[in-house]
Write a structure and sequence with these properties.
241 residues, mainly alpha, 12 helices, 0% strand
Length: 241
């Protein structure tokens, strides 16, 4: 006899597990909504972007690209570079997602930095899982991803609606994106414990911004830093052999 899945219990567990993301996404989402409306766009665009695009850093950058009148090709290239990290996330999660059945494609779409952190932190199950356990695990992962998505959408809409109705002093709000990346960087530094990579990236970023045009600095900085780290790590690996 098939054992029924207690969806309410699993949903409650997902809510508790995703609470840290609720606090972060609501605050960052509100800041995004405020900035979007301040740039002269309708509040509903925050809803549309957060539902369909769902890329925190990408959405912040999109507002700047809109305001600067960037072309479609330029905007697409910048977004590709900024969000390229998700490809690595996706590849590392393929094994887990292969057992999620109908939730697989949404989980791939909704794999943000924070959702990846939550889902990748789930303990690995040794041995073969029974069908019931796999279904519960898949449903839990789906609920976590869906809740994170909801938190972001809710925050961005609250910010956009509030910005449309009430006057706000937005001085310093734009730093929310920088703060987000600083937090992500510190988390990664503590996790992989290889400060060399971050030092090279920081020095490269400072150098390209100082000596090259703003639009070229992002792509050039990433190319130089990635190439430098790759060759140094390759050389170090060869010495260890």
């Amino acid at each position: 006899m098939e054992v029924k899945i207690n969806k309410r219990r699993i949903f409650g567990q997902a809510v508790r597990y995703s609470t840290p993301v609720l606090l972060g996404y609501t605050a960052i989402g509100i800041a995004f909504g405020l900035l979007l409306v301040e740039a002269g766009y309708a509040w509903w665009l925050a809803l549309a972007m957060s539902v369909v695009m769902y890329a925190g850093a990408g959405q912040y950058i999109a507002v700047g690209l809109f305001a600067a009148g960037a072309g479609l090709a330029e905007a697409a290239l910048v977004q590709l570079v900024v969000n390229a990290r998700h490809a690595a996330y996706g590849l590392s999660m393929l094994k887990r997602f292969n057992k999620t059945g109908p939730f697989k494609w949404y989980l791939i779409f909704a794999l943000t930095d924070e959702t990846f952190a939550l889902l990748s932190s789930l303990p690995e199950v040794e041995g073969a899982e029974d069908e019931h356990t796999e279904k519960e695990r898949a449903l839990f992962m789906f609920f976590v991803a869906l809740l994170d998505h909801f938190y972001w959408v809710a925050g961005s809409v609250i910010g956009a609606v509030a910005g449309s109705l009430l006057p706000f002093d937005l001085e310093g709000v734009g730093f929310a994106l920088t703060s987000l990346f600083i937090v992500l960087m510190l988390e990664q530094m503590l996790k992989i414990r290889q400060p060399f990579i971050f030092i090279v990236s920081a020095l490269t970023a400072i150098g390209t911004v100082a000596f090259f045009p703003t639009r070229a600095s992002l792509l050039l900085g990433m190319a130089i830093s990635l190439s430098t780290v790759y060759f140094i790590e390759k050389k170090g690996a060869a010495r260890r052999i």
